Task: structure prediction
Amino acid sequence: MDRGKKNHATIQEDEGVTQPTPDRIMEVGLGFWASKTLLSAVEIGLFTGLAKEPADLDTLRVRHQLHPRADRDFLDALVALGFLQRTDGIYSNTPETELFLDRTKPSYIGGLLEMANGRLYRFWGDLTEALRTGEKQNESKHGAEDFFVPLYADPHRLKGFLQAMSGLSRGANARIAQTFPWSRYRSFVDLGAAQGDLAVQIATVNPHLSGIGFDVPPVGPVFTQYVAEHDLASRLGFTPGEMSCSWAIFFTTGASSSGSCLFAKRMTRCLRVAH
Result:
């Protein structure tokens, strides 16, 4: 062994190196305990209920149909994880869960967690099989329809999902709106616009711009409503279409004389505008 190099598995008492422990290994290996606790709390609407009114154990047991065997441990685990606060027996949200996990707020990002809980969590249980066979482990494994088919068919679920996407990307969207050299352009197109938060952020910060959001047809009403709520309907429009995608982030400026900028969160091989 080269004594000039440090080995994480080697104890070198003469250098004062602390003896290795299994703490991080166990933390990661059993990380699903904490993950599923949070996901189940989102599933039952715990944070949304507490945003309306903090409550004690008995109230929460009835409100969310919790079994007495597990209710206190479940809530106290959320306190220990930093997702709830408990004062004199009254449970309440932390500032983070109050802002991001209350379904009534536009900042709600729980739609993505709901999908993770209802769909992705069980797929990861088959990771070893996927590694050994190379086979898909999603709905198609058992002949079920793709997750996004019923999602796009349900306007309420779709809106919640798109709101979650906006919540997750809002910081990046604001940065793009503020730092990209938009003064060189007069218009833009956002491919894969979703709810339209990027388009709204760009148009709000750059009043000389007009833009188009492009996405699959069911997204249209959600985009249009979001744009209207920000009083940008005169400058932002929606164009429906279909995309066959290979995911990437890219900018393309096109001909400088056009004054147009194309922004895509999805680098597409095929775009088909719906008529």
